Amino acid sequence: MLSNNETFRFTFIKIYSSAERMSVEVFQIAGIPVPFSSDIDVTKLGHDDIFETYQLFRLNLDAHKLSLLPAFDTLLSLNLSRGVIPFEHQINSVKKLLGRFRGRGMLCDEVGLGKTIEASLAMLELITRGLIKRVLILVPPSLVQQWKEETFFKCNLEFITSDEKEFKLQGSAAWGKFDRIIASIHTAKKSPHSDAIQQENFDLIIVDEAHHLKNANTVGWKFLNSLKKKYIFLLTATPVQNNLEELFNLVTLVYPGELGTLKSFKKNFVSAGDRLTPKNYEQLRSLLGELIIRNRRATSDVKFTKRYAKTIRIQLSKSEKELYESVSDIVRNQYAGSPQQVKMALRILQEEIGSIPPAAVSTLESLRDKLPDSAAISDLIRQCNHLVFSEKVKVLIDVINTIPDKAIVFTKFRASHTAITTALEKCDIPYSPLHGGLTRHEKEKSIKEFQHSSKVLVATDVGSEGRNLQFCNHNC
């Protein structure tokens, strides 16, 4: 008569012998090297073998449980992620992306609803089930380090970035050597990197801030479209910004031909004279419902921190007011009848003069030879350069001095950024700059400094793109 242990081990051998292939696959996914043998003799196992045998039995039992899971109705990644308690809409999005969408789709939740968590959980789910091995994540330069940290700390997955020393030492061959890579899309799309990447087969490609690929005529769009991939996730909160053609271009990257040709798409769904307003709305909505996942704040179960918005009205100085009115008159008088390129420059000029005078200098200089009165424009340039410290900057400094906590100042134009940082420096207020002219490592350094020592972060649009700055409470 067999003891309990012997009976248990015999059962183990019976299960293993009928599931060898499945067991090996699961152990490879988990990264646990377990030696197996199909000819274990129960009678020769000693007392020291009992613990090891029990472990092997449990692993085989887990393998059988995995094989019995009903599609993606049960997510394994929820128990494997660390420090992540996903909201209901995030769990539903992952199930929908992997089940109904078959691993190819666009995550277009509104800002703050956790597209990164959804994509990370979906990726972890595919890895855990053994469906993918090679992963390429393409992001804006400022988000490379953030993605590396979040995939490690939340998913326990190690990625290498394309600017790490170990990666660079391999040259172009690195794109084929490493299985999990995070890279700046601006780096990846350029030769010689693009040539090497196009030769590789990736199981999954994730693209964050995918609205940068909205134009099918750009190098970035053509590059991503040329890559060989089994699954693809595009992440963006703004799939449409200027016209519906942008939406068509993004969907084409995920499901080529699903919306037909561009000509037929425009004919069926774009209103004449208004490229942003759809026609046959319900038909288009139904079609996109099989391609795009979009959760809204109003319908999600996320409880956001209450926001207090305050508009501060500023009384301009006499000279600044006169300058603003003079520039506005030029825009108003010259806009009608001007070429499209000049119209665009005039629109930008109006935005710039609404920021601070120095921000308008470069656009005025570009228009000097394109508009009738070049002497008048030269005079406006002189006035803009003279009004370096506008009333708006002075009020901003006063506001910052009243805030006991850290503050973020967002500005669209580099000239405005320079004027603000110059004023902060003169007032001995510690700040960290964040703009597109910095390298990735310089941006990371600025964020760390702001988190630990600086009072103010002065950022252009690059600072608002996917950055996690939840440790700060005030935005200006």
UniProtKB/TrEMBL annotation:
Keywords: ATP-binding, Helicase, Hydrolase, Nucleotide-binding. Residues 395-476 form the Helicase C-terminal domain. SMART domains: DEXDc. Residues 96-257 form the Helicase ATP-binding domain. The keyword Ubl conjugation does not apply. GO terms for molecular function: ATP binding; helicase activity; hydrolase activity. It comes from the Bacteria. Pfam families: Helicase_C (PF00271), SNF2-rel_dom (PF00176). The keyword Coiled coil does not apply. InterPro entries: DEXDc_RapA, Helicase_ATP-bd, Helicase_C-like, P-loop_NTPase, SNF2-like_sf, SNF2/RAD54-like_C, SNF2_N. This is Helicase SNF2.
